[in-house]
Amino acid sequence: MPKIKAARKSTRIDMTPMVDVAFLLITFFMLTIKFRPQEAIQVELPFSIAETPLPERNMAIIKIGKQGQVFFGIDSKFDRIEMLRKMANRYQIEFTEEQEERFALLPEVGVAMSQLPQYLDIDPLERDEVNKTLRGIPVDSAHNELRDWIVAARLTNPKLRFAIKADKDTPYPVVKRVIETLREKKINRFYLITNLEGVEK
Amino acid sequence: MAAAVDTGGESRGPRGKKKGRKKKGSPWIDMTPMVDVAFLLLTFFVLTTTLSTPTTMPVVVPPKMTEKEKEEHQEKIQASKVLHLIVDEDDKIYWYQASEEELKEGNIELNQTDFSKNGLRKVLLQVRKKVEEKWGPNQMVVLIKVTDKAKYKNFVDVLDEMNVVEQRKYMLVEPEPEEIEMVEEYKAKLRGES
Fold first, then answer.
1. Would A86 be classed as within a structural domain?
2. Of the candidates B164, B154, B93, B92, which has an alpha carbon nearest to the alpha carbon of residue B125?
C-alpha cells in the first residue's frame, strides 16, 4: 500500500474576517467611549452594593476631596457659561469672554468666587500645580457659595439632578454641610456616587 | 514601480531573467501588522471604557422644616421600636435599644460593633427579630446618628447596610450631646481595661 501523504496546506490563513470584526469592535468602542475631562482632584470612592448607574445627562456633581475641599460642576458645557454669568451677576464680578470660554471647559469649580477670574487666567496646562493647593468652594454657614452655585445651576437648567462624589476618607462634617446646603435649597433627593462591590452573604 | 508585496514565493533566481515580463503580484497582502494594530487599539478601548462605570446610591432626606411645621408633622413612636446607631471614629458603631422606662431612668446599655459581616448586619437582624416578635413586621425604626469624627465612608457603609438587610425605615439624625458623652465614656472605659 502506498503511503498516504498528508496534503500540504498553506500556513496562511485568510485574516480578512478577523480584521473586519476587529475594526467593527474598534469603531463601536470609539463611538461609545466618553473621555473623562481632566479633573482638578482625584477622589477615591467608597464601595457600596448600589447598582443604579449614574444618569448621564442633567447632572450636577458636588465633589468633596479628602481634606474637605468642595468642588461643583455641571455636565453640560453650554449651560456652564450661562451659570457663570448668573454667578457673576450676583457677585458683581466681570468675566472676559476668554475667561468664560475657559470656564466652559472646566469640569468643576473649586475656588471662591473672588479668586475665580485669577484662576481662569492660569493656563489650563499649568493648572495641575495650583489644583493641589485649592481649598474648594466655601460652604460655611456664614459664607456659603455652594448654595449660590446650586441656585445658579438650577436656574440655568431646572431639570438638574444632584450627586455627591466624595472621597471615602472625607470627614463627615463637610458632607453634612453639603447635604444641609442641598436641603436648604429643597433638594431632598440626590445621589451618592460609589463604586460597586460584591455583597457577601 | 509596482507596489511590491513581498509574498515570499517570488524569488525566481537573478533579477535579469524576469526582464520584459510583467511581475505578477499575488492578491494576498500580509495583514498581520494591520491586525496587530487593530487589536492593540481594541484592547485600549476595551480597557478604558469598562473602568469608568460609577454607580450611584439614591438618597432621600427629609425636607427642612420650621419648628412649627415640625410640631405638626411629628409622630410619636414607641421607644422600644427604635434602634439607635451612633457612628463614630475608627469605623466603630455604638448602638443601643432601650424602652421608655429605661430611657427615663438613663439606664442605657451601650454596645460596640463594626462594619464587618458579623458586626452591624447581625445587630440589625437580631434587633429586628426582637422588635418584630413584639410589634409585628416592619415596625423597627433605625436612627442613624453620625458623629463629627466619622468619615464619609462610614456614612455610605451604614446606608448600604440598610439596603443589604432591606431595612426601609431609617432616619438620619443629629446625635444628642448626651449620646456623644455616653460614647466617650464607653471608649474611656475600654481604654482603661486594655
1. yes
2. B164
A149 domain residue, yes or no: yes
Residues 6+ apart with CB under 8 A from A93: A87, A113, A114, A116, A117
Its ipTM equals: 0.74
Chain B closest-CA separation from residue A91 CA (Å)? 27
Please state the pTM of the whole predicted model. Answer: 0.74
State the nearest Cα–Cα gap between A115 and chain B, in angstroms. Answer: 28
- Which of B53, B56, B161, B164 has the highest number of chain A CBs within 10 A, making it the mutation to test binding with A? B56
Q: What is the pLDDT of residues A104-154, one digit of tens each?
A: 888 888 888 888 888 888 887 777 777 877 888 888 877 888 888 888 888
Q: Which of B59, B151, B160 sits opposite A49 (nearest CB)?
A: B160
**CA distance linking residue B131 with residue B99, whole number of Å:** 11
A137 in any annotated domain: yes
Q: Check CB contact of B25 with chain A, cutoff 8 Å.
A: no
Residue B189 domain boundaries: 79-193
* Contact between A186 and B63 using a beta-carbon 8 Å cutoff: yes
* CATH at residue B125: 3.30.420.270
Q: What is the count of structural domains for chain A?
A: 1
